[in-house]
Every structure is written in structure tokens, then in C-alpha cells.
Amino acid sequence: MEQRRLFKGKRTRTPGGETLVRLSGVRKRYDGGTEALRGVDLEVRAGEFFSLLGPSGCGKTTLLRILAGFEEPDAGEVALAGRNMRGVPPYRRPVNLVFQNYALFPHMNVYDNVAFGLRMKRLPEDEVRERVDWALKLVDITGLERRRPHELSGGQKQRVALARALVNEPEVLLLDEPLGALDYKLRKQLQVELMNLQEELGLTFVYVTHDQEEALVMSDRIAVMRDGRIEQLGYPEDLYERPASRFVAQFLGTSNLIPGTALEGGRVETPLGTLTVSETLPAGARVTLSIRPEKVRLRRHDVESANRVRARVDDIIYTGAENQYLLDAAGFELVAYTLNADVQEPGHEEFDYDEQIIAYLPPENLVVIHE
Ligand code: ATP
User: Domains of the chain, with CATH numbers?
Assistant: First the structure.
């Protein structure tokens, strides 16, 4: 897979294709008593890169295994490409699953691993060769056909696993943390290659990850899962900019969560004083205000605006690209990130330990969470 573009960039969202995956009311309890899925409704459209994101144990893998046919749901319906999948075995489903641990056959070489599914379908050997060659070229491992899995690097093994799935031309490719075992740089490179592949071949991906950055970068839409349920489903920027719960606000990036009680006229009483938000709220409602650290503006001198809060710099973490400030605002801890730009730049300020400054929380960046 040739690395053509570093960034996918925005493309037309909401693929217009038909619904390929539909789950309604899906529940699953394992024998040990764990309720892994507690009623999941979900639709994935043709051509979509759809991610399931959530912490360990939230039910992501169970959901994929149900789609693949390795588990049957206790309740609810699963339809793939318009067909109800109840009782349909894995090999008759229009999907292929790529496992995190590759699950290659150790005694077979790369070629035979990739050819396996086609031979099971009893395709003629010349067609098998043609399709295996196509898949190996696609994932850039031509030349490694005779190697056994133990003679490959982690990245190469994952490419073989991908080729083995793609060669069957599934309508939906299910990927279970496919890059989880790879080191950071390789993961970044393969993320770009996977995105390019998905887009160029017009494939539909259901992609499981617990890495929020990976999900934000790669997906058209994301379902954030928690305890066997979908907590929030939407476009990456919507989930990031408008988290609907404290859980999503904290799981997807970092957030300052400020508890408060609504007053008249879009104002909220908080430990930081009265803050203005950009929506009106029923007076007396208990809410949480969420603001991302990069949206908190820091000033040395006071300015005329709403939501100015006096704060002391408690700690500064230098990360290279940013300075992360830990602030004490009337006993409340506030986190603010500023870009590590050139100090000569107009308006750019850096602050010292223990300095008294002004933190400005723009009303339009304060997200009201009703919980
Ligand atoms: P991870 O990111 O760690 O893979 P996950 O979100 O994929 O987690 P699942 O593997 O779907 O989560 O597991 C959901 C819940 O079901 C967990 O509590 C897990 O312990 C339980 N579970 C999973 N598989 C089984 C099984 N075969 N038998 C009993 N319980 C299981």
C-alpha cells in the first residue's frame, strides 16, 4: 500500500449508500452472567468508515462477533445487506473479520493463508492466483508469498490478515483493533493506508478501537460505547465539540467539567462564579458545563468579556507542541492548553508558575451537559 496522502481531509460525509448493517435491540448475556450488550440499535451505510469506540469490556468485540456470526444475540435483530442473519453461519455472511492478533494459520505460508477462503469456496486455482495477487499487491506485500507467519513482522502479519479478508470481497469488513499490537509510528502509517484503501475501494468498515485519537482521525461516524450500550453516536467533530455526557466528554479527549445550577437568562452558578452559556436553561436545573482545555483562553491583562475567571498558574507541562497549564481558579482546578507558538507573535503570551492571570471561557465553547 503506497502512502499517497498524509491526511484524508474532509470528504462528503453521510455516505448516501443503502444501509448495509442494521442492529435493533441487540442483547447478549454470556454464561458467566456478564451482560455484554444491553440493547444496541445501530445502522451503518454502504461506504462508511464506522467505528465502535469505548473502554475495555464495554462490549465492542461482542458486537463484532455477533455481526460476524460467531455469537448469536439473546434478543434483537441483525440484518446485513438487507437480510436477517438469524441462524446464518459465519461463512455464509457477507462479512469478514480481521482480528487484532492476526489469527493467521502458522503452518501455512502467506500465499496459502490468503488463498484459504477462496479454496474453501472451491474457486479454480487460476482465479485464486489472480485474486491473491491482487490482494497482496493492495496491501503491499508482494514478494513475501512463501514466508510463514513467524518470519514476518507485526505490520506484515497484519497486512496478510487484511489481504486474507479483502480477497473474499466482503460487503462489510469488520476490524477488531487491527492496529492495537503495533508500535506508534507503524500504527500511524497503517491508519493512513487503511483509510486510503477503504476510500479507494469504496469499502464499508466497522472498526473497533479503544484509541480515541484513532477513531477521531479515521472514522466517518463513531459510536461511543459504555457498559454494553451506545452512549453517543455521531460525526467525530460533533462528539468532540458537543459531548452529550460527562463520560463522552472525558473519554474522547480531555475536558474541564464544571458543575452548576442554572439561573435565569442563560446563566449558570458555578464554583468559578456565574458563567454565561449560549442557551437558555430552566432555572434551578443541575447541569455540568464542559469546556476543552484548548478553548480556554489565557490573558495576562483583563479584557472586557463575559466569563472571565481569575486563576493562578499551579503547574506548566511542556509537551513540545503545547504548553499545558494547570490553574487554580478559586480552589477549582482548570486545565488550559496553549499552542507553543513564537512568543514574538502578536497576542501570544506565556505564563510563569504562580502568576495570577485571567482565564476566559467563551460562552460558545461551554457545552451544557444535562445529567
Ligand atoms: P476489550 O477492548 O478489552 O477487547 P470489549 O469492549 O471488546 O473489550 P467484550 O470483549 O465485548 O468487550 O466484553 C464485554 C463483556 O463481556 C466483558 O465484561 C467481558 O468480560 C465479557 N465477556 C466477553 N467474552 C466473554 C465470554 N466468552 N464469556 C463470558 N464473558 C465474556
Answer: 19-94+170-246 (3.40.50.300), 254-370 (2.40.50.140)
| Global confidence as pTM | 0.90
- 227-252: per-residue pLDDT in tens? 999 999 999 999 999 999 999 999 99
Give the distance (Å) from ligand 1 centre to CA of residue 65: 11
Those residues with Cβ within 8 angstroms of residue 17's Cβ, 6 or more apart along the chain or in another chain: 45, 46, 47, 48, 204
Per residue in 260-288, pLDDT tens? 999 998 999 999 999 999 999 999 999 99
Distance 35 CA to ligand 1 centre (A): 9
DSSP 176-238: ESTTTTS-HHHHHHHHHHHHHHHHHHT-EEEEEES-HHHHHHH-SEEEEEETTEEEEEE-HHH
- CA distance linking residue 20 with residue 10, whole number of Å: 23
* Ligand 1, atom 30: closest residue by C-alpha: 30
Q: Is the C-beta atom of 56 inside 6 A of ligand 1?
A: yes
pLDDT at 6 over 70: no
Ligand 1 neighbourhood includes 164 CB (under 6 angstroms): no
Q: How confident is the model at residue 16 (pLDDT cuts 50, 70, 90)?
A: low
